[in-house]
Write a structure and sequence with these properties.
By secondary structure, the protein is an alpha/beta fold. The chain has two helices and four strands. 25% of the residues are buried.
Length: 112
């Protein structure tokens, strides 16, 4: 995992809120970074991580763009509505959907 660049999709504890306390994303960040990965996140509800007692080391990190460029893997952590509606079909990196919220759209040539 050393050198991998990972984009976490969602930092908030639950969908469509800005509350990031007790978010599983922090455990994932720690796990991935301990194994040598570089981790970024995208969350429209948490533009910047606020200082907390539980995770002071992450304070000040900013949300990245919702784009696959520069990443080796994307992981859906929070099932925000924006992720449910977003078309990830053009992304050329693996997408791990831990919340089973990404639309299973058929390829364009199967659409009516």
């Amino acid at each position: 995992m050393t050198g991998a660049r990972i984009l976490l999709l969602g930092l908030a504890y639950k969908a469509d809120v800005d509350d990031d306390r007790e978010s599983p994303a922090y455990a994932l960040i720690k796990l991935f970074e301990q194994r040598g990965a570089t981790v970024a996140y995208h969350d429209p509800f948490v533009p910047v991580i606020r200082p907390t007692r539980e995770h002071p080391e992450y304070a000040g990190r900013s949300s990245s763009a919702l784009a696959p460029q520069g990443y080796d893997l994307a992981v859906v952590v929070t099932p925000h509505t924006v992720f449910r509606q977003f078309d990830f079909s053009s992304w050329n990196i693996p997408l791990v959907d831990t919340r089973n919220c990404v639309s299973q759209r058929p390829p364009a040539y199967f659409r009516a």
